[in-house]
Design brief:
The chain is an alpha/beta fold and 221 residues long. The chain has eight helices and 15 strands.
Length: 221
């Protein structure tokens, strides 16, 4: 049975702003306490790697990853990109004016849904680096598809404003069950409040029991 574990990072429930993970490794900021490393290892089963993007700890905003590759924005420093490549990761750089690329892409190992505002030349990089089919669409009439949905190989959890049509489209694109939910006592920006892979999820410490039940039933059924 998958675990969904509430945690704080730097005293904040917005843990998905700081941590990003796939099924092999999790990237965490350099000065996160050791106990967070332990929670990541125990819940997600991942190798923990200390990293930054543009010397920032906001990895969950700047990085998109699945098991095939990792995407970073053009503001990433050369040594940061080299470090990621040194881990054996397939790394792609998106040169876009929208540096918070994680707000614009929701992906699993099968497909990626990419915001209409992400430039067409970057869509090919997403497809090549993540090794997935790319669909261009918005969600709940918002271009911030990556901030409003979280996906793994079993499901996709979407902000409550999503329509039935939104859910049907996501199921078709990503090939998994879709349902709506929230995190951190009703917050709909799911990406900022949780870190998910196929084994489990870390969620912000304010997340309620009812929210955890919905996360379990959608992403780990």
């Amino acid at each position: 049975m998958a675990d969904v574990v509430p945690v704080k990072v730097f005293g904040s429930s917005s843990i998905g702003v700081y941590i990003v993970a796939n099924n092999k490794m999790a990237l965490v900021p350099p000065d996160v306490p050791e106990k967070i490393d332990d929670e990541v290892r125990n819940t997600l089963g991942d190798v923990v790697v200390r990293a930054t993007v543009a010397k920032s700890p906001l990895l969950g905003i700047f990085v998109v990853m699945n098991d095939n590759g990792v995407l970073v924005p053009g503001i990433a420093l050369e040594e940061e990109i080299s470090m990621l490549k040194g881990l054996g990761l397939n790394v792609g750089v998106l040169h876009t004016k929208y540096t918070a690329i994680a707000n614009l892409i929701v992906a699993n190992n099968k497909a990626a849904v990419v915001s209409p505002i992400l430039e067409p030349e970057n869509r090919k990089i997403v497809a090549d680096v993540l090794g997935v089919e790319v669909f261009v669409d918005s969600l709940s009439n918002s271009p911030l598809v990556g901030s409003l949905a979280v996906a793994n190989s079993r499901g996709v959890l979407v902000a409550p404003d999503a329509t039935d049509n939104d859910l049907r489209k996501l199921e078709k694109y990503l090939g998994v069950h879709a349902d709506v939910g929230t995190v951190n006592r009703g917050r709909s920006f799911l990406r900022g409040g949780m870190v998910v892979n196929d084994r489990g999820a870390l969620v912000g410490w304010e997340t309620t029991g009812a929210e955890i039940m919905r996360i379990l039933s959608t992403l780990f059924k």
